[in-house]
Amino acid sequence: MLSNLQCFLCRFPVISSAILARLQGLRHFVEVARQESFRGAADKLNVAPSAVSKQIKNLEENLGVELFSRARGRAGLELTEAGRVLLFRCASVINELNIAREELDQLQGLQLGHLRLGVNEVVATDLLPGMLRNFNRNHPNLQFTIMVENTPVLLSWMRDGDIDIGLGYNVPPSPDIETLSTLYRRVYLVTAPDHRLATRRKVRLGEIAGEKFIFPDPTLALHQMLHDALERGSISVRNVMTTNSFTLLRQMVQNGMGVSVVIGRFLQNKGENIAFIEIDDPAFVQKPLTCCRLAGRAPTASSVAFAAAVRTLFAQYGG
Fold it and tell me: Where does the record place the HTH lysR-type domain (predicted)?
């Protein structure tokens, strides 16, 4: 049975050594056609004019045709009909070789590059580990730098050139920030497994009145959204803890210290035993998780590949 590589190569005609031997001559031929001069081509290729002339002569002998009309002298060098046909075909070959060069450069970038990511903590603890594991498996020589902070700080780092890609919630529209992919996340009440609301699929915000509550820190956008929603609904809860760590927040919810609210429910690392109950309340709308980079800056090969992986992953989630 043929291997995958053998099956792939079977789709292509056999390349003879004679054709490969002509590649250098074709390179000289294309440059002479561009410059309309042997000397001009020699200067461009940084070789002697006699070397160019010899390459063209050998190519003409191999192909059995005359490629240039030399009757009018050096100033009037022109392609023959055969030369025009060959130049047309060479243009396609050169274009493909240029594309191949770009793809090889990108592959080299992925093999030896350095990917700098800035992410919110929820992303760092829930979504990112699985992504990095898969990405590292495909690109084992790639280096990673991961910075964890809130969205305003991530955007500041991005503008300063400290990170290549940011993954954060509630990224405000800005002409200098390019959105690569967006995932809208639902808002959930999180409780211990034995809480009275743990088995519910949805809950209204008013149903948590009087509950012991663990608040996200005021530096986080969720804090203000939650504070405003409770105030509008005249809902009172008992503040037992405030933290800027969602990992600690969920851990203390699991331990029964109180309930809280989070955006999204990735939890790829099934280390926590907590219940997610969607909050069905007009005070809360789906919040976007955005993958973005600085607009106008040439992206690295590693950041392009990572952004593609993020788009694929986002397509798998629905809230």
Answer: 23-80
User: Distance between terminal CA atoms of the chain?
Assistant: 45
Task: Specify the 3-state DSSP secondary structure of 33.
Answer: helix
Please list, in sequence order, all residues whose beta carbon lies within 8 angstroms of the beta carbon of residue 185, skipping any fewer than 6 positions away.
169, 263, 264, 286, 287, 288, 289, 319
Quote the longest CA-to-CA distance of the chain: 99
Domains of the chain: 4-110 (1.10.10.10), 113-184+288-314 (3.40.190.10), 187-285 (3.40.190.290)
Q: Is the pTM of this model over 0.70?
A: no
Q: pLDDT (tens digit, 9 = 90+) per residue, 180-218?
A: 999 888 889 999 999 999 999 999 999 999 999 999 999
CA distance 113 to 100: 19
| Nearest by Cα to 122 from 237, 311, 261 | 261
